[in-house]
Amino acid sequence: MARTRRYKKLEKSLVSRIMHGIGLFFTKIGHGFASIFKIFDEKLTIMIVPHAQGRVLNFQTNVFALILGILVICGILGSFVYFNKQNAATIVEISRLREENKENLASFDELRDGTHNLLPAVKKFQTALSQTLSKLGLNQSSSVSNASGRNSDLASLFDTQDITTGTLKETSDIRQLTSYLESTVQPIEQIGKMLENQSSLFTDIPNIWPLKNGIGHISMEFGQTIHPITQQWYIHKGLDFSTWRSGDPIVATANGQVVTVGYDDSFGNNIIIKHKYGIYTRYAHLSTTRVRKGDTVTQGQVIGNIGSTGIVTGPHLHYEVHIGSDVVDPAKYINVK
Fold first, then answer.
1. Is the confidence at residue 136, as pLDDT, over 80?
2. Do 237 and 327 touch, CB atoms closer than 8 A?
């Protein structure tokens, strides 16, 4: 019993000390705040004394107001410096945008000039396309006709009545030009298909240069001329091709079958090839031949080499084109493509 009372007494003593300590702590905090408030509340007198005789100005304030005023002034000065820097950066950005705008204007002027130069070129293209389609018996689609405008002269490209507000004329021109070019795809594809279907015709008819890689030149043309040896007028029945040397390769000018490989006193070593549609070609004065009678040859295939066999004044190829029993000018059958 006595022990229980002693424990309760110690407990009350401990609680009392804790409460006393807390009270002292808050008391000291209160005294500290009071001291701070007292410092901030201390009165100050600011005197402004002019050098010349004049009235002395007195300002009464306290420490708190003075510190607050200093903070306000520092904040104003800091804001001024910050916004001044921002303003300088804005000025630099505006200057950059002005320069960029000048460059864009210059680019736009170039684009506008290019558009003006493009439109006449498109008009020429449309005229050429129309003429080509007419020759081939193809009709332009309605889309091309609509795009080409009145009188088939791309007048719609210059019509600005339908331009929306704020849209540049050049932009409208380019849009209409794009529409027109897209509409020409179909007719051009038709031409391509027609040429593809006729590709076999181009390889069956003599139409290429008879010397490989297009080398050499024509040294004597078809027709009436003076014979270089007899000095008499005669009809030259072919074209003479020369490279000023022997050995250059000769090619077949069309698909066909070799019907003659032999030697003639006038033509020397010569080859005759039979093609479709009753056409024959002769290659004369060869130094060597690379095909035999009965061989099937393709256009561009090497069949021999330039030489000076037969009656000649120098190495060259004598090339003839026959249709049936008629001899024709080979120049009309070169580069038909």
1. no
2. yes
27 vs 151, higher pLDDT: 27
Lowest-confidence segment of 221-235, 281-295, 303-317 by average pLDDT: 221-235
Q: pLDDT tens for residues 94-106? A: 989 999 988 888 8
Identify residue 192 by its one-letter amino acid code: G
Bridge partners (DSSP) of residue 226 are 233
Taking the C-alpha atoms of residue 101 and residue 50, their distance in angstroms, rounded to an integer, is 57
Of the candidates 104, 151, 99, 153, the residue with the CA atom closest to the CA atom of residue 126: 153
Can you give the pLDDT at residue 261? 96
Distance CA 225, CA 244 (A): 21
Q: Give yes or no for residue 47 having a pLDDT over 90.
A: no
Q: Measured between alpha carbons, how far is residue 132 from residues 119, 125, 187, 190, 257 in Å?
A: 20, 10, 10, 11, 35
Q: pLDDT-based confidence at 140, cuts 50/70/90? A: low
8-state DSSP, 141 = P
Q: Is 149 helix (H, G, I), strand (E, B) or coil?
A: coil
Q: Please tell me whether the overall predicted TM-score, pTM, comes out greater than 0.85 for this model.
A: no
H or E element at residue 319: strand 317-323
Query: For residue 116, what are its two tokens?
Result: 């003006």
Residue 114: pLDDT over 60: yes
Return the amino acid letter for 183: S
Distances (CA, A) of 2 to 9, 12, 97, 121, 231: 11, 16, 95, 124, 166
67 token code pair: 């510190």
Identify the H or E element spanning 146: helix 142-148
Provide the residue type at 145 as one letter.
S
Structure tokens, 304: 């021999």
